[in-house]
Amino acid sequence: MCTTPSAGVLVRDAPPWGWPEGCVLSRSAFFLLVLCLIVGTPGGEAATAAAPSGAVVAADRPGAGDLALSSERRRWTAPQGPFFNDPRRKKGYFRIERKVIQTIRHTRPGSTIRIAVYSFDRMPVAEALVAAHKRGVKVQMLLNDHQYTKAMRVVRKRIGAKRSADSFIYRCTAGCRATDNKFNNMHSKFYLFSRAGASRDVVAVGSANLMLNAAIHQWNDLYFTSGDHALHRQLAGLFDDMAVDHETRRPARFFCGTPTGPACDEAVDKHTVWAYPRPSGPRNDLVLDTLAKVQCLTPTASGGQTRTRLALSMHTMRGRRGDYLAAAIRDKFAEGCKVRVSYGLIGFHTKKVIGKPTSRGRIPLRSTGLDYNPDDNYDLNKDGKDDLILNFYSHQKYLTIQGTFDGVPNSHLVVTGSSNWASLSPGNDEVRMTVKGAKLTRKYVRNFDYQWKKKRNSRNAYTTTYVNFRVARMVRGDDGQLRRTYVTERRPVVTIERDPYRRGPYWEAD
User: Fold this and answer.
1) CA angle centred on 16, ends 14 and 20, rounded to 5°
2) What GO annotations for molecular function exist for this entry (predicted)?
3) Any residues with CB less than 8 A from the CB of 459 and at least 6 apart, and which?
4) What pTM was computed for the model?
5) What domains can be seen in the chain, in order of their start residue?
6) What is the pLDDT of residues 489-508, one digit of tens each?
7) φ, ψ for residue 346 (rounded to 5)?
8) Cβ atoms within 10 Å, residue 281
């Protein structure tokens, strides 16, 4: 039974339209209700007369701009495919960051953002995360413990650091799922959005941290996909396990969403993901497993052969692991594959391994590590030693394969993620992702070509000098007799030299 405060005689006539049967109104309450209905009518004369321009009548109704924004946010779809920044052009600095911020801004209330990156100092990203939290989005962020930036402090102040809460920012100690020691790091780089605009289960994986350095000094990539609920759920499960911040190494994880066959297979499934730490060596390294599936020469129907093409863009290659992986890809070149290798930084011994001559010559090798100011190094991490400061270098960790893979001709595969070809990577939190697709692979190859072919973007990693040689020649004289004579010829000599910068602690730690 409906009641209102009594004021005079009760009337038991039929209730106003829309009220349930049996409601009782006093006469004064009835007239008050009628008056409110008239005044509250958007086009009513009473409202027009009583409310001057800009009055409170419409204050509680969303404005046209708000409605348009809300509608646009619902219709928006997340980025798809790979995105690359360009540290050599201002307009290309923030291509990746803009895609991340756009996705954050279109997350819906009640949805969840999960971000795991090594480092984070970008205030535009921090502001977008805080705004998402304010509108009811759950924001969760995992980082390495080597820095505490203004952006981190701002996010922590607004959303907190309690991991049991819906939203938090937290720095793992020496890795999240890795053994707690002075070597290991949380080095993964992946982004998850349960709902952004009209897109669900958005996943982004690549080499990009949320750093200014990542935009203006490094070459990076970030691959977006959405709609694969199983893959998103598996990565979210990985994130949740990382948030525990284990002190001892957790088992490696391997998943692919819903497998095409009985088990996940990088040669078959659209995506596969390996989550490190994962003990690795010359007999059980995932990179070696992938390269072993590459067939370099494939016979054609016309009697010829096609060559499988490999392009490697690797931030750093060094240490014992760098040596045996360098030897493995050099062997693929020797077997007949068309191979190109571009690196940001490399250990001298590893460089000698990869550059060793084969029966086909030396593997094509270039470097994106460019140091125009060798005297500007300073103690970046405050350990008492100057650190290597480069102007430009690749931070990518991708390999493209175009050709016969696992017995299937005309395959197209990209391996990307956070893992370097170096000894420290297997002990870290890392994500290694494979993605199948011809169009996608071509986009990665175009990015590789842009760095490889533009002289300002990379340099020949070999050192070529010209030396005079005394060469014997047999010359026929006027009398018809052959006589030995000597001429001087200037010939190029290719050697492997140390790169013009010393090793530093930030080779893998960025």
Assistant:
1) 75
2) phospholipase D activity; RNA endonuclease activity producing 5'-phosphomonoesters, hydrolytic mechanism
3) 366, 367, 370
4) 0.82
5) 74-250 (3.30.870.10), 276-372+388-462 (3.30.870.10), 463-495 (no CATH)
6) 887 778 889 887 655 444 44
7) -150, 145
8) 11
